[in-house]
């Protein structure tokens, strides 16, 4: 980056995360609802054995699928949206921030994956890793350090000068 970037502060990042959490909660809820419907349909077409082992098998598969959706969907959401393109999730776009490398380029998939796999560490220990974003000069949380990324405010476009008004031909 040529000029010193404007680093995204703790509260701005928190707002973006809240928006993303709401989006993800809705997506996970919908996918779990769909998985439950598929489970009910599969179970209705299955002949249960006397000991209930078939039901236990289907119930274990349902729980595994539900938990996989709850874990993998957020990881994919954050990794793909922050690692490709604009470097911003929906919440970050609305907040005007993005995830970048030190040189200002997009983070890329591997850095984004490392960053997002490290997020549980930031949330652990009473969210100390997140609070680093409030205390550090460049507003980096623990997962930013691990992923070698920065969260910066997007540069604001300079307003264009308006053309002069057209001359009027009448009174």
Describe the overall structure.
This protein has helices spanning 10-44, 53-83, 90-95, 109-117, 119-135, 142-147; strands spanning 97-100, 150-153. It has 171 residues and is mostly helical. It has a two-stranded antiparallel sheet with strand order 1-2. The mean pLDDT is 86.
Number of strands: 2
User: What low-confidence regions span 5 or more consecutive residues with pLDDT below 50?
Assistant: none
Could you say which structural class the secondary elements and strand pairing correspond to? mainly alpha
Number of helices: 6
Radius of gyration: 23 Å
What is the chain-wise order of helices and strands?
HHHEHHHE
The dominant shape is flat
Instruction: Determine the N-to-C terminus distance.
Output: 53 Å
Largest sheet strand order: 1-2
Strand residues, percent:
under 5%
The largest pleated sheet is described as: 2 strands, antiparallel
What percent of the residues sit in helical stretches (DSSP H or I)? 55-70%
Average pLDDT, rounded to a whole number, is 86
